[in-house]
Amino acid sequence: MRSHGESGTATNQALSESEIVEAALQVVRQDGVAKLSMRRLSRELGVSPMAPYYYVADKRELLDLVASAALTGVRTPPPESGPWQHRLRDLVDQIDEKLRKYPGLGDILIEQMLGKQLDLIAAVMDILAEAGFADRNVLAAYATIHTYLFGRRRVNPRDRTAPTDVTLPPIVERANRYLGDLRGAYSYDFGMDVLIAGLEAQLVRQATTDLR
Is the overall model pTM greater than 0.85, yes or no? Predict the structure, then answer.
């Protein structure tokens, strides 16, 4: 982070990190992460294109700040709130709700499996450890959850339309009618049910092996 004491115009000096991050979040809410740039940010703030650089070194740092700010407010369910399956689902649901508000945020986070959101990573891993997963499987389980939560948004049904001159296999043609579900709650719930059921099965399987 650049020092606020560095030389710059009066307008530059009037900026704060919180103002920059809020302006960036506004761009992401309106148009998605793909449209966020330092130049677009400066227009949102009404300052010169160089002004944000007094506070943010580059776009990578800006995206890190945006991701952290967007996930603010996610609550870690306490152990007494229910079994591990319910707590895990509650936590993942909260993160997914944040992702829905900020299009493209998952693209930033999918590349940061052990990135800056260490509090949320630790919260997920704590639930898995409390469920009884060995440390090796805690990491494998987290990686699976991370990939589903952040990576599934890259499956864009609008980009998967079949060519009109191609005859689809019968099952693909029938299933293709529900392509819109991939962006909705049905597909998300289905995937989470499968994921948690799979984790339950792996926990049983772990009991027959020695991973510690």
Answer: no
Q: 47: burial class by Cβ within 10 Å (0-12, 13-18, 19+)? A: buried
**Nearest partner of 65 among 2, 10, 7, judged by Cα:** 2
Q: Which residues of 90-117 are buried (b: 16+ CB within 10 A; e: fewer)?
A: ebbebbbebbeebbbbbbbbbeeeeeeb
- 15-19 long-range contacts (CB < 8 A, ≥24 apart) are 15/45, 15/47, 15/51, 15/52, 15/54, 15/55, 16/55, 17/55, 17/56, 17/65, 19/45
Quick: pLDDT tens for 70-96: 899 999 999 999 999 999 999 999 999
* Distances 104 to 35, 51, 128 between C-alpha atoms, Å: 10, 25, 27
pLDDT digits (tens, 9 = 90+) for 99-134: 888 888 888 888 766 667 889 999 999 999 999 999
Vertex 59 angle, CA 103 and 63, to 5°: 40
Contact 124, 87 (CB under 8 A): no
The full set of domains in the chain, from first to last, is: 10-70 (1.10.10.60), 79-206 (1.10.357.10)
